[in-house]
Amino acid sequence: xxxxxxxxxxxxxxxxxxxxxxxxxxxxxxxxxxxxxxxxxxxxxxxxxxxxxxxxxxxxxxxxxxxxxxxxxxxxxxxxxxxxxxxxxxxxxxxxxxxxxxxxxxxxxxxxxxxxxxxxxxxxxxxxxxxxxxxxxxxxxxxxxxxxxxxxxxxxxxxxxxxxxxxxxxxxxxxxxxxxxxxxxxxxxxxxxxxxxxxxxxxxxxxxxxxxxxxxxxxxxxxxxxxxxxxxxxxxxxxxxxxxxxxxxxxxxxxxxxxxxxxxxxxxxxxxxxxxxxxxxxxxxxxxxxxxxxxxxxxxxxxxxxxxxxxxxxxxxxxxxxxxxxxxxxxxxx
Length: 334
Ligand SMILES: CC(C)(COP(=O)(O)OP(=O)(O)OC[C@H]1O[C@@H](n2cnc3c(N)ncnc32)[C@H](O)[C@@H]1OP(=O)(O)O)[C@@H](O)C(=O)NCCC(=O)NCCS
Description:
The protein is an alpha/beta fold. It has helices at about 5-15, 25-40, 50-55, 75-85, 95-100, 105-115, 125-140, 180-200, 225-240, 250-255, 255-260, 280-290, 320-330, and strands spanning about 15-20, 40-45, 65, 120, 150-155, 165-170, 205-210, 245-250, 275, 295-305, 310. About 45% of the residues lie in helices and about 15% in strands.
């Protein structure tokens, strides 16, 4: 069974309820029907029947709960939740009533209220518009200040000596552009959790750099080496039980002979399977190299660090991508 099939099967056993915010999108309506048919999750679709029938007339909507923020009797209650969450930021009651009718905000408020277990959107909204409602009202998990993302990278086979698990986690390739040391430490801790809970691997976390244990120096330029060193210390302090170390070049992280030479005594050097990149440039380029040159399949971006699970789809997603994202979201739910 592939990792994706395992994720779907585990999700189905959990019977979580996931809100899909974009009932106006044909792919989302088709995915809602497929997820319902396969029993992967219970779906609440934001939209109305006439609209869903218009974009996807061939789809059987039975078993899907449709909800329209413009007519729902829940909108009032959600507006109050929104007002409470945002009044300190200057939101008025009137603004809260208006914004609660927005479909992505409505979905995030359903999640905040506990009426659904997870949220998936982004098929026809940008990353910022998809995640902002979650950042504003759902906020981060206890002990974590940074929402981030990772890709679960699945190898084409298990013959690669540098990735014997056949699975790896790359972070953060999609949200935090130039994370601080504190943010990198958060990214490391939550990526280890994603590796365990979703990818099903025992995490060994490498904090990546162009330097291994002080071999490189960029004092005159970006200070990125000290940043990764500081992040490593912060992450170790926050999660002392984790197998986590750095700063490592990629070869020192995955090749035992290089790891032993450059970081003798490290339990992670040479054996890492969770990779924390120093910024989004490195992470985004890195996962695409693995995809295109290495033949890896990338699941994600999986958002992590929220108090409750929210995930962002790519606007180029297909029905299968939406089904997979819903399954991952169901596994992230408490
Ligand atoms: C995550 C992102 C979408 C947030 O954008 P934004 O809504 O413009 O963010 P803002 O700075 O206006 O912040 C909105 C709120 O979210 C919070 N926030 C923003 N980023 C956060 C993060 N990574 N973790 C936790 N909270 C965050 C802010 O503190 C703010 O909270 P407040 O209003 O309660 O004070 C932004 O970082 C982004 O656009 N990242 C790059 C995404 C991208 O282009 N990816 C490429 C895809 S491959």
